[in-house]
Design goal:
This protein is an alpha/beta fold. The protein has eight helices and 16 strands.
């Protein structure tokens, strides 16, 4: 049961609808800038890059024999190596609060419904709870982010490193995200499937008020209007079903998709704004250079993109994978003023 969140849940013609319950008044948070008291660094995102759809790498980073071997080793390490190697040593807990940055932007997707008042969306991705992190390191960051009063929180996959046990001790901290009046929403990432029990991850997140959307969507009402929030299953290890995603309410206005390479599929289906992670911004990269390791076939590494009438926001994510360190691609969350 969710406590202290001012929305109601009810069924209408078989469709779940979430309604923001608050007294209509002028919204004092009219700017996407961050208040002076915010304890972490923040940066304004550059204007969206317009893509042609033809930008792509020669090698598909999600398929092929090398990728299958890498995925096998990654899963093996996350389950059986990291828990022993980093059980007592947590270098990322030192780095995260010192390097964390909030990326902010105001975006107006062409397909966004005009009758909806501006919505503040907090995007968090790739937390990778587990041996690299401790809850007491993450809690002050989440508390500060929620003090920015986002209307809605989108968590775009990879909440664990590779085991369901990675969530042990983190659920109260993750539950802070459910303070958002329009809810905290989740979509599954490839590391969630490393657990072989993604359903258990979904259940645990649900126990603290974070609802998972897997090939489904819901209607959210806010400020006298409404918009559709959807989530697509992981592109690599899940089973994306675009027909099922849009069956109930049509194309989502706000789509959670762990992998940014879902961008062009979403554009063809009329989605307004896609929120993604997965790339870590490269995690290790030299200043003013492209990532050394690129996880997007279409070169959608980080930041804002637009193709025709669809927009994409790719966050570097909060955690680390493979190595408990980041260089040149600092951990971040993203605050978007949409509308």
């Amino acid at each position: 049961m969710r406590v202290g969140v001012p929305w109601e849940r009810f069924e209408a013609a078989g469709a779940e609808v979430r309604v923001l319950q608050r007294t209509p008044q002028e919204d004092p948070r009219d700017d996407a800038d961050v208040p002076a008291g915010f304890p972490f660094r923040w940066r304004r995102l550059p204007a969206p890059q317009r893509t042609t759809g033809w930008e792509r790498r020669w090698v598909d980073p999600e398929h092929g024999a090398f990728k299958r071997l890498e995925r096998f080793l990654d899963r093996l390490a996350s389950r059986y190596v990291y828990p022993h190697l980093f059980g007592a040593w947590h270098p990322y807990c030192w780095l995260l609060p010192r390097r964390f940055t909030l990326a902010v932007a105001r975006v107006t997707p062409p397909r966004w419904p005009r009758h909806v008042r501006p919505v503040r969306v907090l995007v968090v991705s790739d937390i990778h709870t587990g041996v690299f992190l401790r809850p007491e390191t993450l809690a002050p960051i989440f508390d500060s982010l929620m003090r920015l009063a986002p209307d809605l929180v989108a968590v775009t996959g990879d909440i664990v490193e590779g085991r369901v046990e990675d969530l042990d001790g983190f659920l109260p901290t993750l539950g802070m995200l459910a303070r958002a009046p329009l809810g905290a929403w989740y979509c599954l990432g490839n590391h969630d499937y490393f657990t072989d029990a993604p359903g258990r991850v979904v259940d645990l997140l649900g126990s603290v008020g974070i609802r998972t959307l897997c090939n489904e969507s819901v209607v959210v009402r806010s400020g006298g209007g409404q918009f559709v929030v959807g989530g697509i299953d992981d592109r690599t290890l899940g089973t994306p079903d675009w027909a099922c995603l849009g069956a109930a309410h049509g194309p989502p206005h706000l789509l959670l998709a762990h992998n940014p390479d879902d961008f062009y599929d979403a554009e063809r289906r009329g989605v307004a704004l896609v929120l993604s992670g997965h790339t870590h911004g490269g995690q290790i990269r030299f200043p003013r250079s492209r990532p050394l390791v690129r996880h997007s076939r279409f070169c959608l590494d980080e930041g804002l993109y637009v193709h025709r009438d669809t927009m994409l926001a790719v966050t570097r994510g909060l955690g680390a994978v493979g190595l408990p360190w980041r260089v040149g691609a600092h951990p971040e969350a993203m605050l978007l003023h949409v509308g």
